[in-house]
Amino acid sequence: MATKSKSKSMTKSALINHLAEKNEMTRKEVVAFMDTLLETAYKEAKNGFTLPGIGKLVLVKRKARMGRNPATGESIKIPAKKVVKFRIAKAAKDAILPGKR
Question: In what helix (H) or strand (E) does residue 65 lie, and over which residues does it extend?
């Protein structure tokens, strides 16, 4: 039922329906599972949170650097900060973008 068309990404509702159907669960059970998974991912991201076969959420410290104001061309100092990045797993990359063989 929840087949994905080429031009549209799967919505949260479509994903919930698909998972419920595939795993013989109620929508309520799928929503509860997803909420727990997300809550855990957010809490553990600072230590690195891995979804096997998909990727890893990591907290990265960016160094201070020089940048430019695009409107005036003036050099500005961009302060150091922490950012959250998602590093895609090799298995996911290979499944989505098959390499040249």
Answer: strand 65-68
Report the candidate in 31, 58, 60 with the shortest Cα–Cα distance to residue 44. 58
The reported pTM is: 0.70
| Domain 48-101 architecture | Irregular (4.10)
Mean pLDDT, consecutive 10-residue stretches, the chain (101 aa), reads 64 94 95 95 92 93 94 94 94 85 53
Q: Are 65 and 59 within 8 A, CB to CB?
A: no
Q: Where are the domains of the chain?
A: 11-44, 48-101
CB 80 within 8 A of CB 64: yes
